[in-house]
Amino acid sequence: MSLYEKIGGEAAIMAAANLFYEKVLADPLTAPFFGGLDMEGQIRKQMAFLAWAFGGPAEYRGRDLRSAHAGLIERGLGDAHFDAISRLLRATLEELGVADDLIAEALRTVNGTRSAVLNR
């Protein structure tokens, strides 16, 4: 069974993406990177990415992580921001009642993208 299925499938991904971005936009470290974005579109992209990253049925058709974040690197995106995103994702999954072992698995998956997101 995939992580996607273990955490509750599409409904869980939808809830997580919405709650996650509430947290991201409220965090002074991460919020500046999302100013002026179509947040509904951003949430849809995040849902598709999480579904794909967690082994769900959907195929991610967005830009690769390196090119999607290239402009943010120029604006100062770094490890502290990536760590904040990981922390906010953990808080989101905890708030939704996801089991600790599944949160750890999800964070390993997300942390595996660090090099691509930070263009290393």
Structural class: mainly alpha
N-to-C CA distance: 32 Å
Low-confidence stretches: none
- The count of β-strands is 0
Shape: globular
- The rounded Rg comes to 14 Å
Average pLDDT? 88
The helix/strand series, from N terminus to C terminus, equals: HHHHHHH
The number of helical elements comes to: 7
Major β-sheet annotation: none
Strand content: under 5%
What is the share of helical residues? 55-70%
Describe this structure in words.
This protein has 120 residues and is mainly alpha-helical. Helix content is 68%, strand content 0%. Helix 2 packs across helix 3, helix 2 packs across helix 5 and helix 5 runs antiparallel to helix 6 (100-111). The longest helix is centred in the N-terminal third of the chain and has 18 residues, at 9-26. The radius of gyration is 14 Å and the shape is globular. It starts with a helix and ends with a helix. The mean pLDDT is 88.
SSE map:
Layout: H1 3-7, H2 9-26, H3 39-53, H4 65-74, H5 79-95, H6 100-111, H7 114-117
Helix pairs in contact: 2-3, 2-5, 5-6
Notable characteristics:
120 residues, mainly alpha, 0% strand
Short description:
With 120 residues, the protein is mainly α. It has helices at 3-7, 9-26, 39-53, 65-74, 79-95, 100-111, 114-117.
